Amino acid sequence: MASLLSGATKTAHHLATSLLSAAEAKVGSTIPVKVPVKEDDAEKTFTFQGIKGKNVFVGVPGAFTGTCSAQVPGYINAFEQFKAKGIDNIYVVAVNDVFVMKAWKKQLAPDGTPIHFIADDQGAFVGALGMLFDASPLLGAPRSKRFVAVAEDDTITYIAVEQNPAELTVTAAEKVLPWL
Length: 180
Description:
Elements: H1 2-20, E1 54-60, H2 66-77, H3 79-84, E2 89-94, H4 98-108, E3 116-119, H5 124-128, E4 132-134, H6 136-139, E5 142-144, E6 147-152, E7 155-161, H7 173-176
Parallel strand pairs: 1-2, 2-3
Antiparallel strand pairs: 1-6, 4-5, 6-7
């Protein structure tokens, strides 16, 4: 009976992840500007409605994971280089709660950083981008694919998605900077 329930649970989890995730975003797609996310306060949401300028969205599978914790410092350290290329803001987005994202930001940038660490605690933002995948075997729940999207206002002008979320072949900061 337990194995039957386990199998049914896995199937339901996979189906839910598939249903939550829209078609994968591409150049010309729009950022889901009406989907609420959080940054500093668990009880206060905001949206990207009205977003202007050139912004970078870095989607990562999970705060405190090895590859993610290796990737994000590249953006922190290269922030001024991104600014010099016309980038207004960098948003690191993960399907984690706001408390985890704040703790991770503090660990990665103890002296502070202008980079925004965004909690997409329900996966709705990355799901609307088509960037949600079932990471249950390793991370216990659906998570964000590893991606980088550059948007001018709310329109994506560049996007890179790792085929293997444990690798940094196209989404590391030094790989993205030449495309700007």
